[in-house]
Design a protein that fits this description.
It contains 14 helices and no strands.
Length: 321
């Protein structure tokens, strides 16, 4: 795993996002290939010079031009979507298939030989500064007590300082927008949401999407899964502290809203099993406390107490538990 991925995942994992978990790989559909088509991909792969010295300058220039012509469109697309790093991941796979061991060096040479365009400039800047950023990110030490939004802001500032604002946005924009939104959702759920009714909470969530998704609103909202939307709306509704019967009814309504009938039934059964298991564990703990008190009151031996605990465990969880 590359350092830049470590940095953003660490932010998410250490932020206490149990309320609304991240899904870092679900932001958009699968990336387009690093080149525009299968035919172009074959030609582009063939253009990787296994031994640079074997190509004459005109031949090399032609290969580089063809490579960039195939890649320019996808590069521009992913840069505009703030996911240029995903194009780079695909390009590295292309390098590996072509036995090109210095992928970054190869692409720097390709880009240096091309006329300046916005796509060429942003990719060139990103690749030139990527080693420095990969070295700097692990050295960014932040307290775990610092709110996630502040840690993300410092990480984003570092990226902009090293890469430049435009390249950093092209490389990390959508990823950072997603983390910023989910950090805001968690903060909202812990504070303001408790003072609102459910319709107002949902309106506030949409406002947070607009604010933090920003330029990537359409892509990121479309990538929200039914499971994520159900979980978020259900947990917000539980802030009203409904009765167990009301919570069950609400959960079933939301399951039917966000899932097909079969999936809704399967998830309802999962909730039922989870509730049953939680009740079993609670009963078991209560029984253990009663046995401990009885042991102390009656002076049971260790052997008798161990037997009693084993019998109680089997009674609650079944034989062999």
């Amino acid at each position: 795993m590359r350092p830049n991925r470590i940095a953003i995942i660490a932010l998410a994992a250490l932020s206490g996002l149990a309320w609304y978990a991240l899904a870092p790989n679900s932001t958009t559909p699968e990336p387009a290939p690093a080149v525009a088509s299968a035919a172009a991909a074959r030609n582009a792969t063939a253009s990787f010079p296994a031994h640079w010295g074997r190509s004459t300058s005109p031949e090399l220039a032609a290969r580089q031009a063809a490579q960039w012509q195939a890649a320019a469109g996808p590069v521009q697309q992913w840069a505009q979507q703030g996911q240029l790093q995903r194009w780079w991941q695909q390009a590295q796979q292309d390098c590996a298939r072509a036995a090109e061991t210095d992928c970054r060096g190869y692409w720097l040479a390709v880009l240096a030989a091309q006329p300046a365009t916005p796509a060429q400039q942003v990719l060139l800047q990103a690749l030139q500064t990527l080693p420095k950023l990969n070295e700097a990110e692990p050295k960014l030490v932040q307290s775990l007590n610092t709110p996630l939004a502040e840690r993300l802001a410092k990480l984003s500032q570092l990226r902009q300082q090293v890469m430049g604002p435009e390249a950093a946005k092209a490389w990390f924009g959508q990823e950072e927008a997603l983390v910023a939104y989910k950090a805001a959702v968690n903060d909202f759920a812990r504070h303001e949401a408790k003072t609102l009714r459910q319709p107002a909470r949902l309106q506030a969530l949409e406002a947070l999407r607009v604010q933090h998704y920003g330029d990537y609103y359409a892509e990121l909202k479309a990538a929200e899964t039914p499971a994520q939307r159900f979980e978020l709306e259900y947990r917000l509704a539980l802030l009203d502290q409904p009765s167990p019967e009301q919570a069950t009814q609400l959960r079933e309504q939301l399951l039917n809203r966000y899932f097909e009938p079969l999936a809704a039934r399967e998830r309802a059964e999962q909730f039922r099993q989870q509730a049953q298991q939680q009740q079993q564990r609670a009963n078991y703990q209560q029984g253990l406390q009663a046995l401990a008190q009885q042991r102390q009151a009656q002076g049971w031996s260790e052997e008798r107490y161990t037997q009693a605990v084993a019998q109680w465990r089997a009674q609650v969880f079944g034989p062999g538990a």
